[in-house]
Amino acid sequence: MSVIMKREIKNFLKRPLFWIGVLIVVLGVFQDVRPYLGISYVSSDKDLSFHTPSSIADADITDGYVPTKEEDRRKMWEEEIQENLVSDFEMGQEEAEAVIEEMKGMDIQEACEYLETKYHYYNALYAYEDTELHQGTAEEINFYIKSKLKSHRFSYYFSRKFADFSGLYMGFFASVMLAALFWQDTRKNTYELLHTKPIRAGQYVLGKAAGGFFVCLIVLAILNLVFWAACRIFTKSSGFEVNLMDFLAATSLYILPNMLMIVCVYSLISLLFKNPLPAVPFLILYMLYSNTGSRNEEGVFGYYGRPLAIMVRFPGRFFDTVSPPMALMNQGFLILASASILLICTLLWKRRRM
Question: Are 10 and 218 in contact (CB under 8 A)?
Fold first, then answer.
C-alpha cells in the first residue's frame, strides 16, 4: 500500500502541469480573499475611501459598512419613506409628515402593509432591509472591529473565508488533476496485467486513494502556509492576532472530507468504467449541486448546504460568517460515505480479478 501511495505522490509532484494548477489555485484564492486582508482600523474620517457596493446586500466591513443600531433603523427608514412620498407620490411635505406620524404606533410589518394598502407603496419593506447597514465613520468602524475581535481572533474569521474559496478552487483542481490517478492503470494491457500481480485488492485501492488524498493534502498545506503568512504580513500594522491553528482547523473541518470524497468517487468510477474520464463531468455536476442555494422553511433563499455536498460555503459578511446548518454532520457523513465507497471499490477489484 505504502509503495503505491508513494509512487502516485511522486508522479504528481514531478508533473509541471500539477504545479501550474497549484499556482492557479493560489492566485485564484488570493484574488477572492484580498479584500479581507485590507481590513484595518481607521485613523480618521479623512482616511475613509471605500468602494461603494452595487447593492446593500453586497456591503461589508471591507466597504466601510457597519450594522445600524435598531433604534436608528426606524428613523432612517421613516426619513426615506417621507422623502419618497414627496418625490415619487407628489405629496406635500406636511402630508408626508402626517403619514409618518400615523405609523408611529405600528411595527415595521404593519407600517409596510398600511403604506401598501392605503398609498400603493410596495417597496417599503425593502427600504427597511436596506437600513441594516450604513457607511460608518472612523469611530464606528473601529468600534465594530474591536467588538468582534473580543469574541475571536482575526484569523478565526479570515480562515472561514479562506476555507470557502479554497474549497471551491480545490474542488475544481482535484476534479481535473486526479484524472491522472488511474489513467495509466486503466489502460487495457496495464489493467489486465495488474490483476495477475500478487497484490491484495485492499492494498491497491487504499494505496491509490491515499496517494490522491495526500496530493490534495500537500496542496492544502501550501495554501495554509501561504495565506497564514499573507494574513500576518497584511495585518501586522493593525496588530490583529493571527494563528495558524485557525487555518488548520478550518481546512480539516470544511475541506479535507470533501477532498476524500472526490478521491473516492474517482476511484469508484475509474474501476467501474475502467476509465477515469467519466468522473470529470460527474464531479463538475456534483460541485454544481453542492454550490446551489436553496430556500429555508421561511422561503428565504440562501446557502444552507445540501446532503453529501462536497463544498462548504461561507457567503455571509466577514465578521458574521457561520457554518451552514448541519455542515459538520454532513462532513461526517462524507467520511462514512467515502469509507463505504472504498469498500465497494475493493470488492469490485476482487470481482474483476476473479
Answer: no
